[in-house]
Write a structure and sequence with these properties.
Elements lengths: L1 H11 L2 H20 L5 E10 L5 E12 L3 E3 L5 H7 L2 H21 L6 E5 L2 H4 L4 H12 L6 E6 L6 H14 L2 E7 L6 H6 L4 E4 L1 H5 L5 H16 L3 E4 L5 H9 L4 E2 L8 E2 H8 L6
Parallel strand pairs: 2-4, 4-5, 5-6, 6-7, 7-8, 8-9
Antiparallel strand pairs: 1-2, 1-9, 1-10, 2-3
Helix pairs in contact: 4-6, 6-7
The structure holds ligand C2E and magnesium ion (3 copies).
One magnesium ion binds next to loops.
Protein name: EAL domain-containing protein
């Protein structure tokens, strides 16, 4: 039966797959060098209080300026980085760079805001993640309360491990949010037990909130639940005034989306969105 298995593999492994595998391997090799060559950079997407309209934070989003392929969005390399393990050094670079920017802005006299950083599964599984975050905050000189770490529901699947990890992070004083909320394994049990501060409603629910009664019901229910659990709630992917009005009506705390701004380079965030401290 060994021969048969071989045949099957041989037939299925066609030219298209070969190309894809080659480009995958190439990209992976390129990524190893990209960190040293400074090809990664961050954009920041501002987040706003829906009640006051004030900018209250921003999410750091990584981009790769690939020498041959041009600008690559995270969906084209984060999964690869996750598979190869490169996500660990890349994730640390993102964390450090995001904290540095936030610290610099505070030193320049802008009103302090929170920077949110996405964590990957591999990073979240590191036993010494909290120590690393602590070291970065100290090195950069940013107070922990100005850093928020975004995890996804799937990372909390093993609830005991997640509880330990999140407690260690919370002890530092950073905030924790659940990203893309509603799209992963939804267990109400972890909402009850894990030390989280915020739910970010996935943009797939916000997208059709005015067209699809089910999406409206889901957004409304998540928001109400967040209020009862004393969690903050942010809507992702707010693109229209109608969506914004709906979300305000639900007393959703914060919003992020193209209606306010796309992710922008650091200097644009600085010139267009950060507020100068009075006096
Ligand atoms: P995410 O964390 O859910 O980030 C929000 C994504 O939604 C961003 O895409 C942002 O550009 C996009 N977005 C924001 N507002 C709108 C809107 O109104 N409409 C639409 N259509 N899209 C909107 P981006 O930058 O391409 O990032 C995609 C994902 O890649 C992120 O989703 C996150 O999961 C991952 N990612 C980005 N940066 C990092 C990173 O530094 N580390 C890790 N581990 N993952 C990252
Ligand atoms: Mg995110
Ligand atoms: Mg998200
Ligand atoms: Mg995501």
């Amino acid at each position: 039966h060994h021969a048969k298995e071989h045949d099957l593999i041989f037939i299925r492994y066609n030219e298209g797959m070969k190309k894809r595998t080659q480009s995958r391997v190439e990209l992976e090799n390129d990524m190893r060098k990209a960190l040293e060559r400074d090809e990664f950079f961050l954009e920041f997407q501002p987040q706003f209080s829906l009640a006051s309209g004030k900018m209250v934070g921003m999410e750091a989003l990584v981009r790769w300026n690939h020498p041959k392929r041009g600008l690559l969005p995270p969906n084209e390399f984060i999964p690869l980085a996750e598979d190869s393990g490169l996500i660990v050094p890349l994730g640390e670079w993102v964390l450090k760079t995001a904290c540095q920017h936030n610290r610099d802005w505070q030193l320049q006299g802008y009103e302090p805001v929170t920077v949110s950083v996405n964590l990957s599964m591999r990073q979240f599984r590191q036993y010494n993640l909290a120590d690393k975050v602590d070291a970065i905050l100290k090195e950069v000189g940013l107070a922990a309360k100005y850093l928020e770490l975004e995890v996804t529901e799937s990372m909390t699947f093993d609830i005991d491990t997640a509880l330990n990890q999140l407690q260690s992070l919370k002890r530092l004083g950073v905030h924790i949010s659940i990203d893309d909320f509603g799209t992963g394994y939804s267990s109400l049990n972890y909402l009850k037990n894990l030390p989280i501060d915020r739910l970010k409603i996935d943009r797939s629910f916000v997208k059709e909130v005015m067209l699809d009664g089910n999406d409206a019901a889901i957004v409304s229910t998540i928001t109400t639940m967040a209020h009862h659990l004393k969690l903050k709630v942010t809507a992702e992917g707010v693109e229209s005034e109608e969506q914004l009005e709906f979300l305000k009506g639900q007393n959703c705390h914060e919003g992020q989306g193209y209606l306010f701004s796309k992710p922008v380079p650091a200097r644009v965030l600085e010139s267009e969105f950060l507020n100068r401290l009075a006096g």
